[in-house]
Amino acid sequence: MVGLLVKKEMKNLFRTYFINQKSGKGFSKGRTAGFVCLFIFLMIILMAMFFGMSLMMVEPLVSGGIGWFYFAIMGMMALALGVFGDVFNTYAMLYKAKDNELLLSLPIPPSKILISRMVVVFLLGMLYESLVFIPAIVAFWITGGAAYCNVALTIISQVLIYLFLGVFVTTLTCVLGWLVALISNKMKHKSLGVVILTIVFFGAYYFFCMKLSDFINSLILNAEAFSNNVKSAFYPAYAFGMAGVGNIVDTLIFVAFSLVTFLIAVYFLSITFRKITTTSGGAVKRKFKGVTGKRSSQYRTVMKMERIRFTSIPTYTLNAGLGLLFMPILLVVLIIKRGTVVYVLQMFGESEYGPLIPMLLSAMMATIVSMDCGSAPSMSLEGKSLWILQSSPIDEKTIMRGKIDFHFFLNAVPAAVLSLLGSIILGMSILDVVLITIYTVAFTYLISSFGMMIGTMRANLNWTNPVIPIKQSMAVMITLFGGWIVAILYPLGWYLMRSFMPGVVWKIVMTALIIVFDLVCYRWCVTKGAKKIKEL
Questions:
Q1: Residue 48 pLDDT
Q2: What pTM, to 2 d.p., does this model score?
C-alpha cells in the first residue's frame, strides 16, 4: 500500500512536466528529454557554485588536521538547504493536499498515508542535500583527502552519512511542517500566519547568504576555536564530521541518531496527522448581521474572487507577491544609500555607456515585476470548480479582464511608485523618469496579460496540491523566464547597436514595443482566450 501511495505522490509531483494535462497522454520523448536536460543543467550550475565554496575550505581545514570540521560545516549547510527548500512544500504536501479527506475516508491507516508522503519528502530533501554534499565529497578527494584517511572506510562512511543525513533532513522538515500546520490552525488568519513565517524564514536565509563570505573567511582564520565550539555544543555535528573522514564508530552514532529521531517523528506525527488535516479551528468567528447586500458588477466580482484566492493560499501569496515585499525594501535602501549609488552611477555615466543606466534601471524593475507572475497559474487554480465560472452568467471576456487587471493593479502601484521615486532619487533626467515609469507600468501589464495567455493555453485543472500549478507549471516558468529575457534584451539590444542607434530613440522604441505586446496579449485573452475557457 505504501508503495502505491508513493507512486501516486510522485506522479502528481512531476505530472506537469511529462503528461499533457488536457489529453492525459505523455509528452513526446524529445520534449521529455528537453525537460530532463534543463533540470540536469540547473543542478550542475548549483553544484558548481557549492563546489567552488568547498574548494575554499577543504585544503586549509583538512591539512590543518581538522578535516572533520570541514564535513561538519558542509553537512550543516546541506541540512539547512534541504530544510529551507522543502519545509513549506512539506506543509502543503502533508497537511493541505486536496485528497487528504478522501484517503482518510478509505480503509488506509493514517500512518501509511503519512509515511508515503514522507518518502517523497525524503527524495526531495536528498535532491537539495546533493547540491551541497556531493560537491563537498568530490572536493575532498581531488584535493588529496586520501592522504589523511583510510580510503575504504571513508567511502563507506560517506555513503552512509549521505543517506542518513537525508533521513535527518526529512525528520526536521516534517517536524517544522507540522509546527507550521499547528500554528496556522490556531491562528484566525491562517494564510497571513504562514506568509509571515515564510518571510521570516526567507529573511534569515538571505541574511545568512549575505554574510556567508565573511563567515567562511572568519572560519578559516579561526578554525580551531570554531571546531572546539562545535564539538562541545553539538555532538551530532561532530559525529557527522568524524564520519566524513572515516571514523566508523561516529558513523554508527550518527546513523543511530538519525534513525531514532526519524522513528520518533513518524510515531508522533502519525498520532496527530488525522486531527491536524481535518481540523478547521482558528477560523475567524463573526456574528451574523442581517444587511442588504450591495450589487456588484461582473468585473468587480471576478476581481474579488481573485483577491480572495490570492490571500487564502499562502504559497500563491508568496510566489506571486514576493516582488511586493522587495519593492518597498528597495526604495528604502535607495533612500539610505543614495549617496553611494549616485556616486557609482555618475562614474559610470561619464563613460560612453552612460545611456545604459536608465535602461538597466528599467530592466531591473522588469525583472522584479516578472517575479509576481500570479496570472500564470490563475486559470489552473480554478481546478475542478471551473464549471462554476463556465455556468455563471459572467461573460468570458470579463473573466479574462478581471483576472488580468487584479494582478496588474496589485503590482502596478508599488512598481510605479518605486520607478518614479527611485529615478528621481538617483537624479535621472525628466525624460528618463517618464520613460522608466511608463516602461515599468507597461511591462507590469505585459506580465499580467502574457501570464494569463500562457496560463490559459497550458491550464492544468487536474491537481491535488496547489503547489503544482503555482510552482511547478510550465506556464509560470515561461512567464517568469520570458519576462527576464525580455528585460535583459532592453539594455543588451542597445549595447549591440550602440554604434548607430541613439540611446533616446532605443528607449522610446522599446517602450512602444512593450505597449504593442500588451495590446497583442490582451487581444488574444479577450478573443481566443475567452473561447478557450468554454473548452477547458
A1: 87
A2: 0.64
Interaxial angle between packed helices 430-457 and 356-370, expressed in degrees from 0 to 180 and rounded to the nearest 10: 30
Three-state SS at 144: coil
Instruction: Return d(Cα 432, Cα 359) in angstroms, integer.
Output: 9
Flag whether pLDDT at 488 surpasses 70.
yes
Beta bridge partners of 19: 26
144's torsion region: left (phi>0), alpha (psi -120 to 50) or beta?
left
3-state secondary structure of 294: coil
pLDDT at residue 53 tops 70: yes
Residue whose C-alpha cell reads 511547478 in the numeric block: 472
Q: In angstroms, how far is the first alpha carbon of the chain from the final one?
A: 33
Q: Cell numbers 506525527 correspond to what residue?
A: 269
The C-alpha cell 536536460 sits at 37
40-61 in b/e burial notation, b at 16+ Cβ within 10 A?
A: eeeeeebbeebbebbeebbbeb
Q: What angle do CA 3, 6, 8 make, to 5 degrees?
A: 110
Sign of CA dihedral 142, 147, 152, 157: negative
Q: Where are the alpha helices (DSSP H) in 426-502?
A: 430-457, 467-471, 474-497
